[in-house]
Amino acid sequence: MSKYLFLVGTAGCGKTTMTYAFRTWMSAQGFDSITVNLDPGVEDLQYEPEVDVRDWITLEAVMQEYQLGPNGAQIACADLIALRIREIVQTLEGFDTDYVFIDTPGQMELFAFRESSREVIDVFGTENTAIMFLLDPQLAKTPSGLVSLLMLSVTTGFRFSVPLINVLSKSDFLSDEEVARVLGWGSSSDRLYDALVEEMQDPSGIPSIGFLHAMDDVGAYRGLTPVSSEALLGFEDLYSLIQLCFEGGEDLYKD
Fold first, then answer.
1. Domain holding 168: CATH number?
2. pTM above 0.90, yes or no
3. Backbone torsions φ then ψ of 4, nearest 5 degrees
4. What mean pLDDT is reported for the chain?
5. pLDDT tens digit string along 214-255?
6. Domain count within the chain
7. Are 189 and 154 in contact (CB under 8 A)?
């Protein structure tokens, strides 16, 4: 049975590049995988998806048919995808593959916060689905930015109730010192609170330590996995985490 990995994150975090890079890395390791584009508005992709939602729905066609602007059409597309998702999954069932990487729309709210996305996840099957939440390094490198991203991550995980892996994307954009600092914040609410106190001049704007500890209760500090899509770094660690989600750590391929 194929395992489905949805790549989710804020605009510009590198979902499309990550989809291409992870597929490339998997192929180099001898693992079979395919890609799915779930963004009806994307114009250029770095990869040729085996399944493309644009074969069913495009942003331009929805704008014309329903006389909508780009934003309204994006919302309409999200709901239309849910109506056609069974056809899309039936197409995927024609592929014999281990992993399916699903590139979601650039604006994460179109996937993470639309009720129609629950239907999408349900049709794929929650027992063989996980989410990779990509954290933009330019936001994550400040304590307040990281808090915001972790809140989005735990909200996404809470909405869909499937395993979620936090990925620090484009980690090569940061220095080694910055990466180490972000990883430390991402694993400890106390460290993150201390960093917030140091960063923010107005104490009234700092979340309480109790709030940050509460985020711990819903898995905010599960740790971050740094990757570089350009250099293909960090994918072995990420693959191991994915295996833990699906196979209890056992590799798909055994001697």
1. 3.40.50.300
2. yes
3. -105, 125
4. 90
5. 888 877 888 899 999 999 999 999 999 999 988 764 454 433
6. 1
7. no
